[in-house]
Amino acid sequence: MVLTPFLSRIAFFTLVALSTCAAAGAQNTQGNKSQPEQDDSDIALLWNMPLADLLQVRVTVASGNPESITEAAGTVTSYAAQDINKLGLNTLAQLASLTPGYSTYSNIGEHTLETRGQKAGGFDNNRHLLLIDGIPANHIRAYTAQVDHNLPLHFADQVDFLRGPASALYGVSAFYGVISINPALSNRRSSQPGTAVQVQASDNTSSIKFNRFINTDTAQGLISASHYQQQASLEPVASNPSQLNFDNQTSEFAFSKWQWDKGALTGLTAGAMYSSKKGGLGNFWADYSSDKNHITWKNFLAYAKYEKELSANLVSHSYIKYGYSSEDAEYYNATESERSAYSYPFHNYQAQTELHWHLEGAQHITAGINLDSRYGEAEDVEVAGVSRVTPKTPTVLTQSFYVQYKNEFDVLDGSLLTLGARLDNGSADSESYQQVSPRIAFVQKFNRWLSVKTLYAEALRGPSVKELGVNNEVRIEQPSVELQDLKPETIRSVELAPYIELNNWLMGLTFYSNKTSRYLARDWSQFGEYINIEQGFTSTGIELELNYAINKNVKLFANASSSKTEDNSGNAFLDVPRKKINLGWMWSMLGSAPINGAVTYTSVYDYANNLTNTNANNSAASLVNVNIAYPMNRHMQVGLNVTNVFDDRAYWLLNGEANVQMPAREARLDLTFSF
Questions:
Q1: What DSSP element (H or E) covers 624?
Q2: Which of 139, 475, 551, 649 qualifies as a FRET site for 635, CA 20 to 30 Å off?
Q3: Which residues have a Cβ under 8 Å from the Cβ of 379 and sit 6 or more positions away?
Q4: Which positions fall inside the TonB-dependent receptor-like beta-barrel domain (predicted)?
Q5: What CATH number corresponds to the domain at position 195?
């Protein structure tokens, strides 16, 4: 009998589980029969915690200060570590698909975020700011946000999704939204097990994740790492047998952080992150594909943060960061007779300092300065078998100054006002821009259960190293062509959001309108240069988010989003679902059994498309996912995760045409150890 890889993994996991249970049973037989007391290494402390109480959650992503979700100066959805574990999710793309206003799709082997009816495609998933421990972590070349298995979530204590522009606080790239990941030790000290290891395997994927929590007399630390392997599905793209989906990937991740809270180094935090993803370029960008095609993304950053109390009401927060990113690719023509290859390295230096003044009453002022410098090195490349040199990119220098004022007034049950503005000065060789991004957030609390937010914000996304570098290459290769200087694209957003907070209920209803101008896009009809599209986009929509905690062990959630995005001529924004529904049930206990897990339902539908491909009519998707975990003993947990239970093979769209099928049903086994 020959075992498939999936059955082999089942057999292996079963053998390990039985051996561990037998050993645990033998120990219990030899010792007393009473239940042992819980200690810091008990796996239940990490995977069987009560569900997060959303009414007590504090988020900082909206204003830089801890706020409740109902009082935050923005629309935020927050996920605690215990909820992410019960959902069985590993990546930001998976978590975004459950978040109101967000969805994801796949193209060129990359997962891309859509927010409120707008998106950027493929390699340019660059309109969301990604923060890790408060430090910008986007890939340097194009501000690309990592949302795949090269940034797993096993090291996170909390993940926050801010919907809407936030350049008034964060500057360039906080365009459609901000995603903030707080590492696990940020909010805990001794409640974590010393070491946790998780192994996951399915028929097409395998991964191992590692967390090590360290406590000393003066500091606490985290060392986290992961390795992920995925085989290519090799499914036809748009029913074309010569174009297969090479969505294979090998992803690696490492993160380390030390935080001093006693002694001479009190207030200092030092950290580093490394991520790598090598993929097969998915559906490629032509009507053919090859198993020789691949692309590798690498991202490294090292940072130091320092917090200092200067007086009773004045605190400084500062950080310095060095980043290194690379993009390496190799691909062939249809006959595999011509090879193209490149390797682009990039560097980033960033420093920020800000002051927080706590004035009389609830008044609070934040003011800061940020300096950001990034560039790409000159490199040898090969295009269709011909070697040439890609010149050093222009150095993109951004100098930013920002201020924010917050106060609470005694009107009805309280009125919260947040005012802010940021000035960004960007330059690269002869090109430059200056942009002011304002924000106003007003939260009126009518009573203890009803509050209403009114929000206005503007944001920008300045030309990236990639966009300026590509245009610089075109100018060198086509000296007779005059390219226009690139300007930052901008977005203006207005939101109205009533919230109801009643006992164990939390409900938010958000109405929004976004206006995007000077959209930056690549013009493939000419020389592949980047241009500003003067035709603007307007997106309007509504989002409903509901959470209900039946008790500390059972929680229900539901959200729905509806958006409409058109340009100034009334043409719809293609490939984005205009409607989405999520339903979920999470639990920590089933009766008296310590079984934890979740069941979720996601429906995305109503795409704008061309309908010339018959499969485009099948773009609507209804997906059911199930995750169940059971602690075998104090130090081991087994789990089963099934995605797309009913095997709905809907299509992602590309330019309004059916392109890549969504993943088929998959069963994954999980083993988690703590010691």
A1: strand 621-633
A2: 551
A3: 342, 343, 344, 345, 389, 390
A4: 321-645
A5: 2.40.170.20
